[in-house]
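User: Sequence recovery, please. Input:
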């Protein structure tokens, strides 16, 4: 009896090992299939149980006549249906085929010339918006603010040092003006606690309208440099980041060169040195923006500087829309009408920043 039990136990053990071996081989095959590159499609869910196939009747349907389809080039390519179509019908449930109510309509031939206007209308919006923006921002100033041609008188090379303040932050700013023959470079560097927070550089030359920028760069604290390019040969203004383009108008300035251009106009035009005078110019930023800045002389005010009080002409540029730039600038006749104080902000909630002169040196 003990021998019989031992024999049965050995047979059961062999069956268990055989079962484990089969499972191991199946798992190995599954891994090989998964990584062998075969396009093995695993279903997202379990397939439903197969249903008994319904009885099917076969009916032969006559083919419809050939239909000619027009192409974009105007050449029709015949599309011919097969001689017969095998249409399966489920018994007792499939509906009988219905005849077409009308013969198929052949589309008229379309030529490439007829397609071109549609393709042009489907161009990306970004490719169309620059032209619209240029017209709406620069061209549409003939209403209240036309842009006249001004005479200019350039100041000599100078370095002006300011106290720079934005909200509770206080630092220093140096404005360096370097004319050299028919070229110039203008640079504004702002520092707070020894850290550079603002670097703007305008470079270019001169023309009949005064300062003629070629390139303007703007770099802020922990941000990349952005640029506006005045392509004078092409008659347009482009930008390093934005795809926007503007027409280049006579006397157009950047967000830094306007400080010299305004003073150069007032220096050459005596009628611009009193309350009620107005100076208008196009000003372009490095963020793909351009707008008309109209400076109105509103007062002659005393301004405290690092070297004492000076009487300066106050010009104000009022914003045209919400979050537009408001500028106040006080220019000093004794310093070639360059700014001794300037403030700038965008919108009512903006603290803005201020420059107030501490010293100025001729170079």
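Assistant: Recovered sequence (363 residues):
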């Amino acid at each position: 009896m003990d021998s019989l039990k031992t024999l049965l136990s050995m047979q059961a053990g062999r069956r268990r090992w055989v079962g484990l071996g089969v499972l191991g081989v199946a798992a190995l095959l599954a891994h090989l299939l998964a990584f062998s590159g075969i396009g093995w499609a695993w279903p997202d869910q379990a397939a439903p149980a197969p249903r008994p196939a319904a009885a099917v009747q076969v009916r032969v349907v006559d083919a419809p006549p050939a239909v000619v389809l027009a192409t974009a080039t105007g050449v029709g390519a015949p599309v011919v249906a097969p001689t017969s179509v095998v249409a399966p019908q489920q018994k007792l449930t499939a509906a009988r085929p219905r005849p077409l109510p009308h013969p198929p309509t052949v589309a008229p031939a379309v030529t490439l010339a007829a397609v071109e206007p549609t393709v042009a209308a489907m161009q990306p919006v970004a490719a169309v918006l620059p032209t619209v923006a240029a017209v709406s921002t620069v061209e549409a100033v003939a209403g209240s603010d036309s842009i006249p041609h001004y005479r200019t008188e350039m100041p000599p090379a100078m370095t002006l040092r300011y106290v720079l303040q934005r909200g509770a932050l206080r630092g220093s700013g140096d404005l360096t003006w370097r004319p050299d023959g028919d070229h110039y470079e203008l640079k504004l560097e702002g520092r707070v606690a020894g850290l550079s927070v603002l670097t703007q550089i305008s470079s270019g030359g001169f023309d009949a309208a005064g300062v003629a920028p070629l390139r303007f760069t703007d770099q802020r604290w922990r941000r990349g440099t952005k640029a506006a390019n005045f392509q004078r040969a092409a008659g347009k203004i482009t930008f390093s980041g934005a795809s926007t383009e503007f027409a280049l108008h006579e006397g157009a300035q950047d967000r830094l060169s306007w400080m010299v251009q305004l003073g150069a106009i007032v220096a050459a035009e005596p009628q611009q040195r009193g309350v009620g005078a107005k100076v208008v110019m196009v000003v372009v930023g490095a963020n793909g923006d351009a707008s008309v800045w109209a400076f109105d002389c509103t007062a002659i005010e005393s301004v405290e500087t690092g070297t004492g009080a000076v009487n300066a002409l106050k010009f104000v540029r009022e914003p045209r829309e919400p979050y537009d730039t408001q500028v106040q600038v006080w220019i000093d006749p004794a310093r070639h009408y360059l700014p001794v104080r300037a403030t700038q902000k965008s919108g009512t909630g903006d603290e803005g920043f201020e420059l107030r002169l501490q010293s100025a040196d001729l170079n």
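The CA atoms of residues 41 and 47 lie 13 Å apart.
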